[in-house]
Amino acid sequence: MTNPILRSLSPLALLLASCGSSISAQGADPSTAGIAITDVATFDEPWAMTFLPGTNQALITEKKGKLKLWTEGTDKTVEISGTPTVDYGGQGGFGDVVAAPDFAQSGMVYLSWAEGGQNNTRGAVVARARLVMGDAPRLAPRLEDLSIIWRQFPKVTGRGHYSHRIAFSPDGKYLFITSGDRQKFTPAQDLNANLGKVIRLLPDGTPAPGNPFAGKGGVSAQIWSYGHRNLLGLAFSPDGRLWDIEHGPAGGDEINHVEPAKNYGWPLVSDGDHYDGKPIPRNKTRPDLAQPAISWNPVIAPGNMIFYTGSAFPQWQGQALIAGLGSGGIVRVKIDGEKATELERIDLGNRIREIEQAPDGTLYVLEDGEGAKLRHLVPQG
User: Which residue out of 161, 228, 257, 376 is catalytically annotated?
Assistant: First the structure.
């Protein structure tokens, strides 16, 4: 049966409201924040970026299905062959890309995308493949032995809230995946579905030993935490804690310290309301559920999140840097143990999908949408 809340909303309203279409003007000017910016390349609907370990090259996904290799200091990219067919539309398409912890030896990368199913259904998948750099210009870079290792279950209708962010634990032993609620609300509380969850696997895609619901078997054995909505950032802080950042409904974006077996409340509670104005009980009304470290209202509509560990901006060491779609820039957050405090917003004048740290500690941001700029942020002066 269709959720009655979903029946009252158009698909377009659901997609736009959940991804924060407006730009906030609350941020500081980049020069005031001590930042100089250079635009270095252009992409069409980029979604994710990762630097390949030990190189000055980065992989960048574009939602329609292209994977591109970009080299610092240039404005040119090389398209990588062997990529999968993606189900493009709404929030769906090519998603995240990360290098395996042993990339220097294995050449393996991990990728996520939206996959079509039967009867107009879809779900996110995660795969791994070997990146073969080739011998340009004779042989272009390519993916070999692409193999899907995880799928959202069940596949459902709609094109929103895939999440499908990927992060490895600092020791490289565990693969974490964010799995959105797919705008279906109640599966986030159902331990027999892996929607609305943070997932913990071994690098080969099998459930990690010691997961809190392993005894239930099936997809329950994959689950690390539950009660999540649309998680677009997942990262480990320097002290080894796992954090996510996720979109609320109409209000209530939140950053969470993610711990095993904990219930983060969606859709039982939120610090936002439904898009039709129907109220949702606030987080504080359920102290038995995990509470957000910060909730934002108005929303920032996050794109992704990293923890800064470089030396180019020493004053930001250990802080969370959040790409803002709705806020149109960077949100800096101080993390102190399990507590989080917003410090600053830096206005970049456009929706920011992705922020990444370069090998030299400078930063790159990817704008959202068609003709999106890759922008290089360095200390001013």
Answer: 161
